[in-house]
Amino acid sequence: MKANHEVKALPYAYDSLKGISKQVNEWHHDKHYAGYVAKRNEIEKKIAELKEKAGNANYSEFGEMKRRESFNASGQILHEIYYDIMGGDGNIDESLDVVKKIVADFGSVDAWKEDFKLTAMSALGWAILCYDPTDGSLHNFLVDLHNNGAVWGSSPLVPVDVFEHAYYYDYGPDRGKYVDAFLGNLNWAKINELYKHATR
């Protein structure tokens, strides 16, 4: 087992995002995200050291470790993409391949944004623009937990964390304003790189 995953530094200053406070970035990155990385390492180590490798669908220590492994691993990965694609000005360059694909699959950027925001308002945990290689299309998938709602083989391009810890300090129950702030901080050049990698 690996058990040596590392917390990636925030790729911009804590106070550099528009509409997402320094305090939220500190709590969200340094506590929540870092916690998933730490727990993933802890769980992988425990699985490797577990003496009784008994499995049981009703309950087994091994089974519970495996359930929490995918929860924490997915939490780590989604947060790393979430942070990596922010730090931009939110302006959409229509010459980018990913933007052309959004227009092709959703009809327009505005139609994609409407669907993305509705997905984010409906989710418990995440709304994620993904590329699905099984149909060659982009989809906004609703993910209630980090590991619950994912579509196998799809590549996440734009994940927005809508758990309350991501926005309540700044916006209280007004999740929509937070989603707008998130969209206003996107770095579309980085999103385009993820799209090109997914479709390579």
How would you describe this protein?
With 200 residues, the protein is mainly alpha-helical. The chain has helices at residues 22-49, 61-84, 97-106, 109-122, 168-171, 175-184, 188-199; strands spanning 126-132, 137-143, 155-161. It has 2 domains: 22-84, Helix Hairpins (Orthogonal Bundle), CATH 1.10.287.990; 97-199, Iron/manganese superoxide dismutase, C-terminal domain (minor pseudopilin epsh fold). The radius of gyration is 18 Å and the shape is globular.
List the helices and strands and how they pair.
Layout: H1 22-49, H2 61-84, H3 97-106, H4 109-122, E1 126-132, E2 137-143, E3 155-161, H5 168-171, H6 175-184, H7 188-199
Antiparallel strand pairs: 1-2, 1-3
Helix pairs in contact: 1-2
Broad CATH class of the largest domain: Alpha Beta
Please provide the ordered H/E string of secondary-structure elements. Answer: HHHHEEEHHH
CATH architectural arrangement of the largest domain: 3-Layer(bab) Sandwich
Please tally the β strands and state the result: 3
Q: For the largest beta sheet, what order do the strands appear in spatially? A: 2-1-3
Number of helices: 7
Number of folding domains? Answer: 2
Work out the helicity level. 40-55%
The pLDDT mean sits at 96
Q: Look at the helices and sheets and give the structural class.
A: mainly alpha
Largest sheet: 3 strands, antiparallel
Fraction in beta strands? 5-15%
> What distance separates the N and C termini?
29 Å
**CATH-level-4 superfamily name of the largest domain:** Iron/manganese superoxide dismutase, C-terminal domain
How many whole angstroms does the radius of gyration measure?
18 Å
Using the alpha-carbon principal axes, give the shape.
globular
Ranges where pLDDT stays below 50 over 5 or more residues in a row are none
Report the CATH topology name of the largest domain.
Answer: minor pseudopilin epsh fold
